[in-house]
């Protein structure tokens, strides 16, 4: 009996690089997160396709995905508009985050390698320098990266999949409130959490992560309510 030969691996660009659809999706998502597309802005599929010099198909698919993730909403007679992000949206986000980030911190304390811990420590040092130098927007972005890294250190692929869409919403929230936020308390909370993870203190890491989410919830709600265009 002849042993079947393994199929040759494809060398198509699409197999080794992000697809055009994915690149369009990431570009539009980042514009929403960074505020280039503010809440309430109407997005016109044809205009975006012309600007990005792509067909309307990947733009349509990207917009459908962003709608399913809560970044866009469809309104009568207006079509797709950038969704608001208000106190209620933040409340829903934090309800989920408190449980998942507590789990992520516990697993990170259990599984993080020495190399991963060094990377996390360097990230914290960069955030601390940015906060102390008054580069608040950079500090907020680096602190958002800290949360993503802790999830990666958990070593749980399913948890990473569950947290990925929350990470984008968290980044948008931090971006909305970055002008009024104080990076110093956030850096301190992250440094304490890092120490618990480094010391393999699973209970302590989970407790600190949950407490940090609770503190961030209260701060975010206050900052969102103070925005001039708060819904």
Textual characterization of the structure:
It holds the Pfam family FCD. The protein is mostly helical and 231 residues long. The protein folds into 2 domains: 17-82, Orthogonal Bundle (Arc Repressor Mutant, subunit A); 87-226, Four Helix Bundle (Hemerythrin (Met), subunit A) (Up-down Bundle). Helix content is 71%, strand content 3%. It contains 10 helices and 2 strands; from the N terminus they run ααααββαααααα. It has helices spanning 13-16, 20-33, 45-52, 56-68, 87-111, 114-132, 136-153, 157-177, 183-198, 202-226; strands spanning 72-75, 79-82. A hairpin with a 3-residue loop joins β1 and β2 (79-82). α5 crosses α8 and α5 (87-111) packs parallel to α9. It is globular, with a radius of gyration of 20 Å. The model is unreliable at 1-16 (pLDDT under 50).
> In terms of per-residue confidence, which ranges show pLDDT below 50 for 5 or more consecutive residues?
1-16
As laid out across the biggest beta sheet, the strand order is 1-2
Gap from first CA to last CA: 70 Å
Give the helix/strand class: mainly alpha
Tertiary shape: globular
Q: What is the third-level CATH name, the topology of the largest domain?
A: Four Helix Bundle (Hemerythrin (Met), subunit A)
Q: How is the biggest beta sheet arranged?
A: 2 strands, antiparallel
Q: What is the name of the CATH class of the largest domain?
A: Mainly Alpha
In helices, the fraction of residues equals over 70%
> Into which percentage range does the β-strand content fall?
under 5%
| Count of DSSP strands | 2
- The total of helices stands at 10
Compute the number of structural domains: 2
């Amino acid at each position: 009996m002849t042993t079947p030969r393994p199929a040759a691996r494809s060398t198509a660009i699409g197999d080794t690089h992000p697809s055009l659809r994915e690149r369009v999706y990431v570009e539009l998502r980042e514009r929403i997160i960074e505020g280039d597309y503010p809440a309430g802005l109407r997005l016109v599929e044809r205009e975006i396709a012309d600007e990005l010099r792509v067909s309307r198909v990947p733009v349509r698919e990207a917009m459908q995905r962003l709608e399913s993730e809560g970044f866009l909403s469809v309104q009568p007679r207006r079509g797709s508009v950038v969704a608001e992000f208000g106190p209620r949206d933040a409340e829903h986000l934090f309800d989920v985050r408190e449980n998942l980030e507590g789990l992520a911190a516990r697993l990170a304390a259990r599984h993080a390698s020495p190399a991963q811990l060094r990377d996390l420590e360097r990230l914290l040092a960069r955030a601390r320098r940015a906060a102390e130098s008054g580069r608040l927007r950079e500090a907020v972005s680096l602190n958002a990266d800290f949360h993503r890294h802790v999830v990666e250190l958990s070593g749980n692929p399913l948890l990473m999949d569950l947290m990925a869409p929350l990470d984008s919403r968290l980044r948008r929230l931090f971006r909305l409130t970055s002008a009024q936020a104080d990076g110093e308390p956030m850096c301190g909370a992250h440094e304490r959490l890092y120490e618990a993870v480094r010391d393999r203190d699973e209970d302590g890491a989970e407790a600190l992560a949950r407490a940090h989410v609770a503190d961030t919830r209260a701060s975010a709600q206050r900052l969102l309510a103070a925005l001039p265009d708060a819904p």
